[in-house]
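Subject: for your reference before the review

Hello V.,

The reviewers asked for a structural picture of the protein, and I figured it would be easier to keep everything in one thread rather than splitting it across files. Below is the amino acid sequence we used in the manuscript, unchanged from the supplementary table.
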Amino acid sequence: MKHMNSEVKEERTSNKKRIDLFLVPIVLIAAFLNLFKIWTDEYANAYYTAAVKSMLQSFHNFFYASFDPGGYVTIDKPPVVFWIQTISAKIFGFHGWSVILPQALAGIGSVLLLYVLVKRTFGVWAGRLAALAMALTPIVPAVSRTNNIDSMLVFTLLVATWMLFRAVRTAKFGWVLAAFAMIGVAFNMKMLQAYMVLPAFYVFYVVATKITWKKKIAFLTTATALMLAVSVSWAVVVDSTSADKRPYMGSSQTNSVLELAFGYNGINRLTGNTSVTGSSHKQPSQTQQQTASSETKQTSNSSSDSSQSSNQRKSSSSQKMQAPGGGNQNGMFNTGNPGPFRLFQKGLSDQISWLLPFVIFSIVGLFAGVKFKGPYTTKQKESLFWLAWLLPVAVFFSIAGFFHQYYLIMLAPPIAAFAGAGAVALWSMYKQRNGWKSWLLPGGILTTAALQVYIMSPYVSSIGVAPIAGVGALGVILALVLAVRKERKNSLTNYLGAAVLVVLLAMPAYWAMTPIIYGGNSMLPAAGPDSSSGMGGPPSTATNSKQSGFNGMQPPGSSSGNSSSNNQMQPPSGSSNGGQLQMPGGSSNNGQMQPPSGSSNSGQMQMPNSTLSKASSSKRKSGGMNAEVNKKLLNYLTKNNTGEKYLFATTDSTSAAPYIIETGKPVMAMGGFSGSDPILTVSKLKAMIKKGEVKYFYLSGMGKGGQSDVITWIKENSKEIPSSKWQSTSLSSQQGPSGNGTLYEITLK
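And here is what came back from the structure prediction:
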């Protein structure tokens, strides 16, 4: 801390040709948080892992990012990240860890990039602290330890930021083009989410470059055109290809990438209209069950071993967990209720907001005395860039109708940058006794400690009172001592600064470790003592981490047990589909997952007990509801296959993914991810059966919406296979939607 007041130029010169020894432990911390035990996750996010398995089998599947080896339907995201994952699996072999590895390395790379970006202008200490803050932001390692896209997306946007900063420093137009082209690449990772940083890019280039307005407009127009061209390049190729020569574009209603980009993966995220039935009705209020996107239909079994979990999480399995957006008033999937203070609500605050009060004080300090018309220093220009990244993204997450907790990684870079740069700036103002500005440091410490106490308070049963009281007490003491000692200059003040770092980063560091301690969730990554549940928020009522989220759903062919046992997800009684549980796209309830009608838990959705995971296994299959393969069913289908292209067909990707991963054989998800894509028609299915492409159909209560005519026809024209021939009784006796399925056979001449 005592070096913080050194001039930026001196620090840059002294560190130019040697490794920053302070950076080494920061990188090691990031590596530990991102990499340790990723080899225990056998399936990761099974939906994406199955796609990688399929993409390994042919260039056709690789290019289109086909979910299944047969090239029937794609996943619901662009292919770039999955191209990288497939290359990793090709090099290292197909494993859960090999598809996770690129994202883990991207998480580490983001820490290094932030160090480089902040250090050059704000000084080496600012770079170190920014890198440390990025590494310890809980949602960063939580996402990076999975094969979800967001970690790679953030890394790519930081690469684009580095290019933009270089463009301004060198005044070379080529770097501007490269920066915006990189955003186009990021678009082909997660579509419109990549464009969240565009306000920062435009504002910074306009303010920071010393060229005429005519050139600024011309350069930005050209760069934007290139970005758009790169963005839609893959989409145009796909949409221009005849539909019968490529897979169906998953989760779209018109078999179009552009519709997927600007609808389902675009504007609908803001409006909350995530219906995939083909209609445009809006979602009901947040007190009702919401429909799920590709990241929410499955929830992983991801967890540490049962003995570790039982020591960490003591609670009663007889209680029911409320569904997201239900009576806990914590919003859909624990993303809180829209409003200006949403990021401070539980479920979001513990993922990203630990340092937000300090960041606010830092912004005040960094922009103190700035005049609207300038001139601006380099520090002020780059501070404006990070602010223009932070504010629009924060506003989006404050008002958006639908997103997941792990999307909040988009806020991590600007928060970490302001934490590092602001710490140095506020420290300098404090040491120089710079009037009212000298009070910003104690004020930032006090309010940040107060927020951290608030964030931790719902977890008192898991972490105890001591950490909460410790952070609160030490935060108050340090803020008061610094306020009292403002007029003094001695070495003790430097030790107080170091103590502040420890106090304010201790609990974010612990939260960042929770996916390792408690087990992570590859489907819905989130940090916290309940990190394996995938639901965020305070600890669940499950007896161990394997009983969290939607775990316990049975694989196709497992025996269904007592339908009245606690924690079972039950279909709505009296529903129009014969009591089946409707998933997104279900036509009778606007695509919502409904709680049991008239149940004793006042509309709460009951969670099933988990019985799929094998506690003795050294690896965990954390791919979702069906993270096990029914060997008896697989043996039956393999033995009776007479040359059909598809091993079997099922309603949705949840049932299909584990079989694709385990066998590498085509399994048809007739309705795409959620079972609601309008891919099949009865006539098309008849033609496929006559060609000998498929004859077995596994149908359960999942994903019927959008495919009801096809499913009705299958039931009316098939032979039901006796359960004794294929249904396993060894996996579990618990009931789950997929466990209640029926196997049918159809042969047409």
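For the response letter, the relevant points are probably these. The two ends are 80 Å apart (CA to CA). The chain has a mean pLDDT of 80.

Happy to draft the paragraph if you're swamped.

O.
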